[in-house]
Write a structure and sequence with these properties.
By secondary structure, this protein is α+β, with helices and mostly antiparallel strands. It has four helices and eight strands. An eight-stranded antiparallel beta sheet has the order 1-2-3-4-8-7-6-5. The two termini are about 20 Å apart.
């Protein structure tokens, strides 16, 4: 799982908005059929898979209309809805969580802007940061760490996308090849990072927005 290190309190999501799938009044949100519209998201609520992200938070940065269709290629399980909550020290960014039929499987898109966005990017701590080209003004990913974690920034808009690699299509059998471990190799993790980063490119309105996992390949075998 992810060992993402964010800058101090910048990465705190307002505790009042941690409940997902509930309306602002606390009542359960009725499920929305694929392709239908449930309206703008409010704090802590979910919108249907065909709806774009909007609503709570996002005063300085938002997920700008990402839909389940955009995120679906990153996970095997079917995306059912999107939960939007305020993000950051001042709640001006957004965390857009794409939920699936499997409770533990999500795609989490996080954005923030202004001084908070810049501080978030500058305060990122990776074990071995290397450039991830083609994303925003600058992006780095955590190489040599069995990880596809990355952060990006364009102007002052910070963006990251988190998805557990084992839930990405095509990765399960690669892990089987290395004795059911996560040691699938840096080349594969870089492909996963670049694929997830296409969601940031959609937010930025620049760069490649096509998720491409075709380069995933069986890593060298390892001893049991």
């Amino acid at each position: 799982m992810y060992r993402f290190a964010r800058a101090g309190a910048i990465g705190l999501i307002a505790g009042a908005f941690l409940l997902t799938g509930c309306s602002a009044s606390g009542a359960p949100t009725a499920p929305t059929a694929p392709g239908t519209t449930s309206g703008l998201a409010t704090e802590g609520t979910s919108v249907g898979p065909g709806d774009s992200t909007a609503g709570s938070g996002g005063a300085t940065a938002s997920c700008k209309g990402l839909t389940a269709v955009d995120a679906q290629p990153l996970v095997v399980d079917q995306i059912t809805d999107v939960t939007i909550t305020p993000y950051g020290l001042h709640g001006t960014g957004q965390e857009c969580r794409f939920n699936t039929t499997e409770d533990s499987v999500t795609v989490d898109v996080t954005v923030d802007g202004g001084a908070d966005g810049s501080a978030e990017f500058d305060g990122t701590t990776f074990t071995d940061p290397v450039p991830l080209p083609g994303v925003g003004d600058k992006a780095i990913w955590d190489s040599n760490d069995e990880s596809s974690e990355f952060v990006a920034i364009k102007g002052t808009v910070y963006c990251s996308v988190e998805v557990d690699p084992e839930n990405v299509p095509g990765v399960g059998h690669l892990m089987d090849e290395v004795n059911n471990t996560i040691r699938i190799g840096d080349a594969n993790y870089k492909i996963l990072a670049a694929a997830a980063a296409t969601l940031c490119n959609r937010i930025y309105g620049s760069g490649d927005t096509t998720i491409d996992l075709s380069g995933l390949s069986t890593p060298p075998s390892i001893a049991p």
